[in-house]
Amino acid sequence: MPALRIIDQDLWDAVKAKQGEINSGGGISMVSTTQLGCSTARNKSTCDNRLTLSRAKLEEAVLHALQAHLMDDALCAAFCEEYTKEVNRIRIEHNANLENYRPELAKLERKKERLLDLDMKDVIRDFRADKANRMQLQLAGARGGGCRDGSGISASGTG
């Protein structure tokens, strides 16, 4: 929208032309505590653009442009309205994405519960089997037919 511009078209075109000359295909990120630079040049070494820009100077230029161009009440209101719309659009999109994952989350929770139930059943089964074995050994010992190795088989070959 031309009415919302904070940079005149000639400057915009000149910057875009310069960007085309030095396009690295990457983004700009903080390369030190005070400097911005080409991410691709720093992280992938596929770009030779090692130029940096002072974060303070960038912030100063942006704030100056905002002060110079958004101090008009109508422009400021239009900017705030558009900004609010965009933030709300992103929030709605994010919430919609969350809603898409809720059924999958519920399915995974049910699977987890089933696995826990199976594990508990295995534990109970193993506990019962171990308890039954101990009882068999105790019964055999009480009958006097147990052997010293705990197998429950007496020297005569019977339990």
Give a written overview of the molecule.
It is a single chain. A hairpin with a 4-residue loop joins strand 1 and strand 2. The protein is built from four helices and three strands; from the N terminus they run αββαβαα. The model has no long low-confidence stretch (mean pLDDT 81). The longest helix is centred in the last third of the chain and has 70 residues, at 73-142. It has helices spanning 9-21, 39-43, 55-70, 73-142, and strands spanning 28-30, 35-38, 52-54. Helices cover 65% and strands 6% of the residues. The radius of gyration is 37 Å and the shape is elongated. The protein has a domain at 2-71. Strands 1-2-3 form a three-stranded antiparallel β-sheet. It is mostly helical.
What is the number of helices? 4
Count of extended strands:
3
Which strand order does the major sheet show? 1-2-3
Instruction: Outline the low-pLDDT stretches.
Output: none
Tell me the overall shape: elongated
Helices and strands, in order, run as HEEHEHH
Structural class: mainly alpha
> What is the typical, i.e. mean, pLDDT?
81
The end-to-end span amounts to: 95 Å
Characterize the biggest β-sheet: 3 strands, antiparallel
If you compute it from the alpha carbons, what radius of gyration comes out, rounded to the nearest whole angstrom?
Answer: 37 Å
Q: Hey, roughly how much beta strand do the residues contain?
A: 5-15%
Q: Indicate the percent of residues in helices.
A: 55-70%
